[in-house]
Write a structure and sequence with these properties.
The chain is an alpha/beta fold and 254 residues long. The protein has helices spanning 18-32, 47-50, 55-59, 64-75, 87-95, 119-131, 170-185, 201-210, 223-226, 234-253, and strands at 6-12, 35-40, 97-99, 102-106, 138-143, 161-166, 190-198, 215-220. Helix 7 (170-185) links the parallel strand 6 (161-166) and strand 7 (190-198). Bound molecules: adenosine-5'-diphosphate and magnesium ion.
């Protein structure tokens, strides 16, 4: 059977390292894959800077509502875009910010205090990404909003693998377990845990104990990440590349 491209969503508690891991995974996939869709589904909109997109470039990014309008123009109605392939990829590509073979897209603008959430845009973009016919050398990596509030059948639609990022502290573990449980309830096909900011053997044991047999990888505490001084260090990136390999292998085995 010919494999199609995978859709990976990165979830977990706020501050756990979702954006850091998503950006590193995106860069790792950009080396081996023809096209990487980098989707910022978190209203805090921090994936762009993590991928090296400047504030000027970032302010020029059009929101998903415009994509919706464009698709409706072309299709003349809601929901009919499923038949659009391969034009869907073309329209989406027009909307993305291109960084080499990385196609960046994000949810509506930055959430204002007391404003509405972007659940609808999120669900719409997921529907578009689900409708895309991804080739084996294409991949989608989504940086999800923090916690469980935004995780639903709609927002998780089409996701093949949900990576739950967990720090070695009880609150992060607790949120991770809730995310894991919810993901199973809404039938996400595969859920795996990545421990982050691991600084000791005890940290590693704490994660393995909380998620027995479900830990795909452990990422050490990384000083470059912590200080926010550009990209994570080489050790961190090498470990993320291994996580990517495990994802690809797991995929080939199923
Ligand atoms: N392995 C790590 N070691 C040290 N600091 C990290 C690590 N991973 C992430 N960080 C830092 O933790 C903070 C939160 O990370 P971020 O990726 O923005 O989390 P999230 O997207 O889950 O909110 C950032 O300051 C980031 O630089
Ligand atoms: Mg983030």
């Amino acid at each position: 059977m010919k494999l199609r491209g995978i859709r990976i969503a990165v979830s977990g508690k706020g501050g756990a390292g979702k954006t850091t891991l998503a950006a590193a995974l995106i860069r790792a996939y950009a080396v081996t894959h023809r096209r990487v869709y980098a989707v910022d589904a978190d209203p805090d909109a921090s994936l762009a800077p993590a991928l090296g997109i400047s504030p000027e470039e970032s302010s020029a990014i059009r929101p998903v509502v415009e994509l919706k309008e464009r698709i409706q123009d072309v299709m003349g109605g809601e929901g009919g875009f499923f038949s659009l392939n391969p034009r869907l990829a073309e329209i989406l590509s027009d909307f993305c910010t291109h960084i080499g073979n990385i196609l960046f897209i994000r949810m509506g603008g930055i959430k204002k205090a007391g404003g509405n959430c972007y659940c609808r845009e999120n669900a719409f973009l997921n529907a578009v990404l689900t409708a895309l016919l991804l080739e084996q050398d294409e991949v989608v990596v989504m940086d999800m909003p923090a916690g469980i509030e935004h995780l639903s059948r709609g927002t998780a639609r089409g996701v093949d693998i949900l990576l739950v990022v967990v720090e070695p502290n009880p609150r992060s573990v607790h949120t991770g377990q809730l995310v894991e449980k919810l993901a199973q309830d809404i039938d996400v096909p595969r859920v795996a845990v990545v421990g982050n900011k691991i600084a000791s053997v005890e940290d590693a044991v704490a994660i393995e104990t909380a998620f027995p047999g479900r830990v795909l990888g452990l990422l050490s505490f990384d000083h470059a990440s912590y200080k926010g001084e550009g990209d994570p260090g080489p050790g961190f990136l090498a470990r993320v590349a291994q996580i990517k390999e495990s994802l690809d292998k797991g995929r080939a085995a199923t």
